[in-house]
Amino acid sequence: MIRFFDIFFSLLGLVFGLPVLLLLTVLGFFDTGSPVFRQTRVGRHKKPFILLKFRTMRPDTASVATHLADASAVTPLGSFLRKTKLDELPQLWNVLKGEMGLVGPRPCLFNQEELIQERDRRGVFEARPGITGLSQVCEIDMSTPELLAETDARMLSFLTIKDYFGYIFMTISGRGAGDRVVKRHGKNSHNVE
Fold first, then answer.
1. pLDDT tens per residue, range 128-157
2. Pair type for strands 130-132 and 190-191
3. Which one of 6, 42, 60, 100 is most buried, by most CB atoms within 10 A?
């Protein structure tokens, strides 16, 4: 049933959100010259997939987990996209393709070995990764791998249709800060969108 809702709402979002997607793509060209960010992430059963997002950081920054990223790499448009969570809209395509769900554990990078081990131990990779979930609305990010994996596993163990819609509603209404980019001083810029 949840997969049915994923397909229905992602298709609905892509069709009715097309004007917003097109507008943000055009604005992204002016902002960074490369509006869509593509990155290989860990999917269901630890299979790789290409995650899509609107770019929020300069294209020349290196790929690291968001909590390790340099806040100076975030563009003005990117800051707005992050706050409003509009940077996640292209992931509706990932959901429609079956690589992700609307609700599930946020997909990590293959170099986040501790998180992968913790999630693997708890069976988290049996589920599709998601755009939002319990960890996101509780502001638990990838800087605390064990807590994140525990929270993901707990969510998956007790996920009901009511919870599914609850997490989506809480995300849309602004609960949860999303992946945080910590302000640092210095010249090194790193990025994971």
1. 999 999 999 999 988 899 999 999 999 999
2. unpaired
3. 100
pTM summary value: 0.86
Nearest of 9, 17, 171 to residue 84 by alpha carbon: 171
- Residue 73's Cβ-side half-sphere holds a number of Cα atoms within 13 Å equal to 27
Range name among 76-85, 115-124, 162-171 with the lowest pLDDT average: 76-85
Integer CA distances (angstroms), 60 to 26, 57, 179, 192, in order: 19, 8, 20, 11
**17 phi, psi to nearest 5 deg:** -90, 5
Q: Helices 18-31 and 2-16 sit at what angle, rounded to 10 degrees?
A: 70
DSSP string, the chain: -HHHHHHHHHHHHHHHTHHHHHHHHHHHHHHTS--EEEEEEE-GGG-EEEEEEE--B-TTSEE--GGGS-GGGB-HHHHHHHHHTGGGTTHHHHHHHTS-EEESPPP--TT-HHHHHHHHHTTGGGS--EEE-HHHHTT--TTSHHHHHHHHHHHHHT--HHHHHHHHHHHHTT-S--S------SS--EE--
At which residue do the structure tokens 């609960």 appear? 175
